[in-house]
TrEMBL record:
Keywords: Coiled coil. One of its GO terms (molecular function) is protein-folding chaperone binding. SMART domains: DnaJ. Residues 41-68 form a coiled coil. This is Molecular chaperone DnaJ. Signal peptide: none annotated. The keyword Ligase does not apply. SUPFAM superfamilies: Chaperone J-domain.
Length: 117
């Protein structure tokens, strides 16, 4: 059974992952003009077939990204938010531990001073 290759749709449209819907549409229009079957009529049979295959790939990438780009961006944003929250909790825990140490030393010193009198 042949391996199925995962297609990087951003790469097909020559974009980065942190792109906008508008940039996706622009890239699609630009590439479609180059690879559209009607634009490649005067080329050889092999070149026409390659252009048609590339055209299909571009259209598939465009449709996928339009439908899923927002979801992908939200998922990435959630991961970043979770990482920030986790770091914040760790920092708070460390700070509270340091505060407890400092506070307990100060309180115990004050109690000791009071008992001494």
């Amino acid at each position: 059974m042949p391996k199925t290759q995962k297609t990087n749709y951003y790469k097909v449209l020559k974009l980065t992952r942190n792109t906008t819907i508008q940039k996706i549409k622009q890239a699609y229009r630009k590439l479609v003009l180059v690879y559209h079957p009607d634009k490649n009529v005067k080329k050889s049979e092999k070149e026409r077939q390659q252009a048609e295959q590339k055209f299909i790939e571009i259209r598939e990438a465009y449709e996928f990204l339009l439908n899923n780009h927002k979801d992908i961006k939200q998922k990435t944003q959630r991961q970043k938010t979770c990482n920030k929250k986790t770091k914040k909790k760790i920092n708070e825990k460390m700070m509270s531990d340091e505060f407890k140490k400092m506070f307990s030393k100060a309180v115990s010193k004050t109690i000791y001073e009071m008992l001494k009198k």
